[in-house]
Amino acid sequence: MSTGAKIQELENIANVARGRIISNSNKTNTPHLGSCLSCVDILVAIYFDILKIDPSKPQDHERDRFILSKGHAAAALFQILAMKGFYSDTLLETYGQDGGIFAEHPPTPDKLPGIEAATGSLGHGLPIGLGMAMSSYIKQNKYKVFVLLGDGESNEGSVWEAAMMASAQNIDNIVVIIDFNKWQATDRSIEILGGGSLKEKWQAFGWDAVEIDGNDMTQLISALSKKNNHGKPKAIIANTVKGKGISFMEDDNNWHYRIPTEEEVGIALTELGIET
Amino acid sequence: MRNAFADEVNKLAVDDNRIVLLSGDIGNRMFDSFKDEHKGRFFNCGIAEANMMGVASGMALSGLRPIIYTITPFTTTRCYEQIRIDACYHNVPIIIVGTGSGLSYAELGPTHHSLEDLAILRVLPNITILAPADEVELRQCLQQALKLDTPVYIRIGKKGEEIISKKDNGLKIGCSTTILHGTDVCLIGTGTIMPIVLESAGMLSSKGFSVRVESFHTIKPLDTKTLEDVFSKFSLVAVIEEHSCIGGLYGSICEWLVKHNNRESRLISFGTKDEFMCEVGTQDYARAKYGLTSKNITEQVINTFDKT
Q1: Closest to A122 in 3D by CA, of A149, A98, A99, A103
Q2: Please, is B127 exposed, middle or buried when counting C-beta atoms within 10 Å of its C-beta (0-12, 13-18, 19+)?
Q3: How far apart are CA A205 and CA A127, in angstroms?
Q4: Is the peptide bond before B221 cis (omega within 30 degrees of 0)?
Q5: Domains in chain B, start-ordered, CATH in brackets?
Q6: What is the ipTM of this complex?
Q7: Given A90, A103, A197, A215, which residue has the most CB atoms within 10 angstroms?
Q8: Are residues A157 and B50 in contact, defined by beta-carbon separation less than 8 angstroms?
Q9: Which residues of chain B make contact with A164, given a CB cutoff of 8 A?
């Protein structure tokens, strides 16, 4: 497949995922649409091109690991994992139901194939991912670990504790992606804990860091597929738009919590070119 | 006790290559042998305990058996949420060791005291909580903790603790160890306060009491079988712990007792008060301040016994 065709295919998958996430939000009253839509392209790039994984062997020792540290985007991850074949769409029909497993945040790995860590409380995914990355050295496995953080999540001190340790230990099989959508729950992220360059912050902590358009599939694949430099952890600052892909949701933080009406779902699907 | 910990972990790691030792920037030179003999399996995680707990959980999720070691408040209260979520919610086999627990570091002030660790940890699902009395119990606790597939917290002292246990005393996690058999009063102790408990038993014996002594090295799961036996036989039971009287072993027994006691036994408690000990003092001073001395325990037990 040519690179152009591959990118087109990944973009199509992201489009379908957006439609599924929005419809599910309306159907199951699941919030955090804005947070899901900003990182859909990242999730699709990672699951459909980067990770060495076999959905039929979710516990394979050599599998690459992905941790959604910004666990409130679980509604996106749940759709992606089903689309990738970790479980059937039928299972998703229990979404949001009493006694089910699809909550607003990922469950523990033993409850759902494809999940590597139960996140939701912010600032936990990177330390856990670092532990997994370090284990590969000790056990002499060859896998890589990818951790997706939110920019709001980067308020948490534990993120930076892990950042320090990863570089001190020269861990070069870990990649952090920051979904830099410029918003956290109630305000602009740079207004809450100060501005300055996220890229420079990660570099100051000893990481290689690059900045890309995180809603651009070509840039995502290029940044994610590039090998880490020897002995260096890597951070990808992915500039994204909260609510990306739907005109009336983009950069509108009301969609951190709002649930779309049926009519809004219809408009969104039309914008995505999905037939209803 | 901490040297015995380092020695035992070093030995266990010879046959178990899943063991990884993580320290929060303490234990200067203590782990030199481990570092030499088990290269690449020791990590000084720095003064960043939240990360250390997350890293350990990630390692456990990857099939390793991390053992975490630092001063008790920093490996418990400091990173409580990481224990709750990363370790207990994921239900992974990590061993959390708190050194200098209770009033071991009395001189260092309340920042370094740990008188609430049992209370806050035992409410967490999936965790096993151990408080060995001495290095004999500690070594057995470590050996058996590694056989569990779930999180374990081990509360230990610092150094020079008196050994009260017989070698190979058959310790079993979840089952209290009977140190002395008796029929008049039962003293239930836990952790490094056990020598004081035994001293109290000696003093009570010399006054004509027949004293049973139990070492409750396991706080959770609570050994309810032994409790049933004790409360069916004794009219006076005393619980002694270097921990707040709120929420520790005494609290744990009280919760059980209100549901299960089928006779009127008196239960008295020796532990620290609901306060921060702000004045300077040695561990002996601090213990005395809170009545954790054999003299006080003996007097209180006799006074209460006379009233029953």
Answers
A1: A149
A2: buried
A3: 15
A4: yes
A5: 2-155 (3.40.50.970), 177-307 (3.40.50.920)
A6: 0.96
A7: A215
A8: yes
A9: 46, 48, 51
Would an 8 Å CB–CB cutoff place B41 in contact with chain A?
yes
Is B91's CB within 8 Å of A128's CB?
Answer: no
Interface of A with B in 165-184 (CB under 8 A): 165, 168-169
| Closest CA of chain A from B58, distance in Å | 4
pLDDT (tens, 9 = 90+) of chain A, 276 residues, equals 889 999 999 999 999 999 999 999 999 999 999 999 999 999 999 999 999 999 999 999 999 999 999 999 999 999 999 999 999 999 999 998 899 999 899 999 999 999 999 999 999 999 999 999 999 999 999 999 999 999 999 999 999 999 999 999 999 999 999 999 999 988 999 888 877 899 999 999 999 999 999 999 999 999 999 999 999 999 999 999 999 999 999 999 999 999 999 999 999 999 999 977
Locate the chain A residue with the closest alpha carbon to B88. A108
* Ramachandran angles phi, psi of B181, nearest 5°: -100, 140
Q: What is the pTM of this model?
A: 0.97
The shortest CB-CB distance from B62 to any of A118, A126, A135 is to: A135
**What is the DSSP code string of B233-285?**
H-SEEEEEEEEETTTSHHHHHHHHHHHH--S--EEEEEEE-SS---S---HHH
Strand-pair category, A145-150 with B211-215: unpaired
CB contact under 8 A, B86 and A127: yes
For β-strands B128-130 and B152-155, DSSP reports them as parallel
Axis crossing angle, helix A217-225 with helix A3-28, rounded to the nearest 10 = 110
Beta bridge partners, B175, equal B172
Look at strands B236-244 and B185-190 and give their pairing. Answer: parallel
Domains and CATH numbers, chain A: 39-243 (3.40.50.970)
